């Protein structure tokens, strides 16, 4: 009898994060079954997979609504433009990423089954109340998932997969649940009457989630448009103005800030002078965020930072919140998805208790 299948997927504008297992080794160290890949779905111009010369198991072909797409860790090594669609969960891109995430999880679990016991997804805090029910409907729909070649045998190349149950969570709640996993019993995160806040700068939104103990305080939580894309936009515009390149793609900017330069072929741009542009943009966003929580700031017992954009905001938060210990989550890009998975397991255990 196969164990119950819990798959947690955090589909962001920047990256898609997937978690399917968690174990402890002999030393008690956490080992997660997880993967993170860029949220890009380039249309297929030539199906390199069918020729055999371009086959790569980390580049997954998905056919949807008459169009073929690649997605996954090896979808492309080039720069892909990303559209910021306010109706993201209804787009082909979101569906392709969801199918590829399920494919990768089942591939690593070593079994392709027609049912997922629990599928966990998330939404920004601002869209949770209005879009949660619709995302639940989307998640529960059956969908065709390609079967990995080495597990296919004489069987079909794809199977219809349905989630038996689904949980939709506010994205930063995942980070809060992950933080609580190894917290001591006297940690404020467990104490009623003490507020903990987790800040989650994503690609398109900056979210914050507040809990009283581990009970959500959604009226104190929220989000606003901004996030990493705003920082990258400011840097892109400044580079374009100063070097006459026009606005560069955000992926180029993010990679350039990490590596120290952007190579355009005809010109190499040193990005060191633009780190201050990014830092100043982060400070402005944090100032706007603090204006929204000012009335409850003094009640906070713990402040956590999570998400793929944490590296851009950590210094700004420490600067603007003196006196608070800002704790950046380990593997911050994965912490929401890890917390989703833990919450999904919690829910299954509660149902069977």
Automatic annotation (TrEMBL):
Actin-like protein N-terminal domain boundaries: 8-174
InterPro entries linked: ALP_N, ATPase_NBD, MreB-like_C
Protein name as it appears in the record: Actin-like protein N-terminal domain-containing protein
Pfam families membership: ALP_N, MreB-like_C
Transmembrane feature ranges: none
Residue ranges of domain Actin homologue MreB-like C-terminal in the record: 198-318
């Amino acid at each position: 009898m196969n164990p119950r299948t819990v798959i947690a997927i955090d589909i962001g504008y920047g990256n898609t994060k997937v978690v399917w297992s968690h174990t402890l080794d002999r030393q008690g160290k956490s080992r997660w079954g997880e993967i993170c890949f860029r949220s890009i779905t380039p249309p297929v111009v030539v199906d390199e997979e069918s020729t055999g010369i371009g086959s790569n198991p980390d580049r997954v072909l998905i056919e949807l609504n008459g169009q073929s797409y690649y997605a996954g860790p090896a979808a492309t090594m080039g720069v892909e433009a990303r559209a910021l669609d306010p109706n993201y969960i209804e787009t082909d891109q979101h569906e392709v990423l969801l199918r590829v995430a399920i494919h990768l999880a089942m591939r690593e679990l070593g079994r392709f089954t027609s049912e997922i016991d629990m599928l966990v997804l998330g939404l920004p805090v601002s869209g949770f109340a209005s879009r949660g029910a619709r995302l639940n409907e989307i998640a529960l729909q059956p969908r065709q998932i390609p079967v990995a070649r080495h597990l296919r045998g004489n069987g079909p190349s794809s199977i219809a997969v349905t989630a038996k149950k689904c949980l939709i969570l506010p994205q930063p709640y995942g980070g809060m649940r992950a933080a609580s996993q190894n917290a001591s019993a006297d940690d404020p995160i467990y104490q009623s009457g003490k507020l903990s806040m987790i800040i989650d700068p994503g690609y398109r939104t900056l979210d914050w989630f507040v809990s009283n103990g581990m009970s959500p305080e959604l009226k104190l939580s929220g989000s606003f448009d901004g996030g990493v894309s705003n920082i990258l936009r400011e840097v892109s515009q400044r580079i374009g103005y100063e070097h006459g390149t026009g606005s560069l793609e955000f992926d180029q900017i993010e990679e350039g800030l990490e590596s120290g330069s952007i190579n355009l072929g005809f010109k190499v741009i040193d990005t060191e002078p633009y780190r201050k542009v990014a830092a100043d943009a982060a400070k402005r966003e944090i100032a706007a965020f603090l204006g929204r929580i000012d009335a409850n700031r003094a009640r906070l017992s713990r402040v956590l930072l999570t998400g793929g954009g944490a590296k851009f905001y950590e210094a700004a938060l420490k600067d603007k919140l003196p006196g608070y210990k800002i704790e950046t989550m380990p593997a911050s890009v994965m912490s929401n998805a890890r917390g989703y998975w833990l919450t999904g397991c919690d829910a299954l255990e509660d149902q069977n208790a």
